[in-house]
Amino acid sequence: MAESSENWSSSVTAALADGQQIAPSKEEFNLACDHIVQLLRDASALLENGSHATAAFLAVTAIEETSKVHLGHYRRSAKPLARQKDPLFRHAEKHLLAAGPTVAMGERLREAVGERRVDELVALARNGGLVSLREAALYVEQHSSGLRVPAAVIPKVAAREVLLFAIEAFDDALVGYTDHTFALRNETDSLFSRWRSSPSSGRD
């Protein structure tokens, strides 16, 4: 875990070193946070309606946008990097950046999914596993045993866990910068409460 934390710190430094600042004004920052909460809201609605895979995909997208806005806000350059060179436009880097040391410290996440699962989610974010989950949630894939479709690969409980992780990442990284983010936290807290006590604990 120490090596993983060092990788996270190095990735933060690299993300801040170059690239255009993202959402530099208070108004733009609030708009970006509104966007992330909309992703979380939509993921919850899809999960409620049984679209587990798409819910997981949107939750992962919310994780990516959280790290992009959080780190991008601290940049001081007005000059953009080419997308292929900018860490804040690479899926694996954004997942790693969102899994900061303090995300796993929240008691409510550990109570909702269990300590071991929190550690597994952090590891998935830091080792590229969320990239695989993201792709499995979106694309069909042909295997020797037949076609695998997202709905059959991503169970409801996995989508629920990723959504809770995404909510916690948003709260940890972005709430507190503006008064508006405190108002948004009321909504994300409600979403967290909805799914923390979900009766769907089995991998259906």
Write the layout of secondary structure elements.
Layout: H1 2-17, H2 26-48, H3 52-72, H4 91-98, H5 107-113, H6 115-127, H7 129-136, E1 141-143, E2 146-148, H8 150-153, H9 156-174, H10 179-196
Antiparallel strand pairs: 1-2
**Helical segment count:** 10
Structure classification: mainly alpha
- The largest sheet has its strands arranged as 1-2
Strands, total number: 2
Please state roughly what percent of the residues sit in beta strands, choosing from under 5%, 5-15%, 15-25%, 25-35%, 35-45% or over 45%.
Answer: under 5%
Average pLDDT metric:
93
Q: In angstroms, what is the radius of gyration?
A: 17 Å
Order of helices and strands: HHHHHHHEEHHH
* N-to-C span: 31 Å
Low-pLDDT stretches: none
The geometry reads as globular
The description of the largest β-sheet is:
2 strands, antiparallel
Model description:
The chain is mainly alpha-helical and 204 residues long. 67% of the residues lie in helices and 3% in strands. The protein has helices at residues 2-17, 26-48, 52-72, 91-98, 107-113, 115-127, 129-136, 150-153, 156-174, 179-196; strands spanning 141-143, 146-148. Strands 1-2 form a two-stranded antiparallel sheet. A hairpin with a 2-residue loop joins β1 and β2. α2 (26-48) packs antiparallel against α3 (52-72) and α3 (52-72) packs parallel to α9 (156-174).
